[in-house]
User: Fold this.
Amino acid sequence: MKFDHVAVAVKNIDQALAVYTALGDFDVRRTEVPGQKVRIALLKVGDVNIELLEPSSEDSNVAKFLRDRGEGLHHIAFAVEDIEQSMKDLGAKGFHFLYEKPADGKFGSRVNFIHPKDTGRVLVEITQERQDSPTGD
Ligand code: CO
Assistant:
């Protein structure tokens, strides 16, 4: 397991990007994940990333998060080699997942989330990068 990213829920991704790019000179990639109803800006920081998440729909989980808690830290994510195996191993230890099967993540990755009630209210993502991805996202 490797640390992969920390995700921040934001109302406006362009405004948030302006703040972060004032902090430092990051490589930025943008994408959208329709299945999760989010727009994403990924800021590369060494081997890991900051993921800015803006809801693309009012019924997005991130929109609900913003209504309930406001902007701020949303989840942390670990990269795993084999997401099915990780789900099996973690499930055997009593962790519950939000999805029965891995969902589509950004840039062809497959993801799932451990229920925050199992992790002290911190939403934890596991992500398996696309197999043929040379850059590793
Ligand atoms: Co994430």
Notes: The beta strands are 2-9, 27-33, 38-45, 48-55, 72-79, 103-104, 110-114, 124-128.
